[in-house]
Write a structure and sequence with these properties.
One of its GO terms (molecular function) is corrinoid adenosyltransferase activity. It is an enzyme of class 2 (transferase). InterPro entries: CblAdoTrfase_CobA, P-loop_NTPase. Keywords: Transferase. The chain is an alpha/beta fold. It has one domain: 3-Layer(aba) Sandwich (Rossmann fold), CATH 3.40.50.300. It has 6 helices and 6 strands; from the N terminus they run βαβαβαβααβαβ. Strands 3-2-4-5-1-6 form a 6-stranded parallel beta sheet, with helices on both faces. The protein is globular. The N and C termini lie far apart (52 Å).
Amino acid sequence: MEQPKREKPYQKPTGERRGLVLVYTGEGKGKTTAALGLVLRAVGRGYRARIFQFMKHERAAFGEHRALERLGVEIEGLGDGFSWKSKDLDHSAALAYKGWQKAREILLSGTYFLVVWDEISYPIRYGWIPLEEVLQALEQKPKGVHLVLTGRGMPEEIIERADTASEVRKVKHAFDAGVPAQRGIEH
C-alpha cells in the first residue's frame, strides 16, 4: 500500500507584520459577509474599523448596518442603490466618485486599523472611479492600515497588488430556484 504524502511541517512566517490588502471577488455569495467577518474580528480586538459601501444607499437600514452601529462601527452607503435601478446614471457616477474621494481620504488618514471598500469593483468597471486612482491609493496606503476590497469582477491589476485574494464561487443559489432575497440573510 502506498504511503500518503506528508505535508511540510508548519514553519512560522518570519516577515514583518504590516497592513494588508485583501480582496474578495467572484460570482458567489459571501464577499461582503467575509469582509464584515474581518470587521468583527478587528473590533473584537479593540481596533477601529470603517466601512464604505459603494452601491448601497446613504441611509440604508440593512441588518448589518443596524448591528454595526450598535458596535460603534461606522458604515456608510455611498451610492443610490444598484445601478440597474438607477434613474440617472450620471448622478450615480457622481455619487460614486464623491464617495470614492471620501473613502480614499479616510484610508490615507491612517485613522482606522481596517477599512472596507465594499462593492468597489462595480464603479471601477463602470468607469465611475478611475482604476489608476485606486491603484495609486493602494500604493499610498499607510503601512499599518488593512484594506478590504470586495465585488464581482475585481480588476486583475488590483488582485495582483493584493496580499490576499479570494474568489467566491457560486455552486448553487436560492435565487436560481426563484427564492427572493430574505431579511437576515441577504440584507
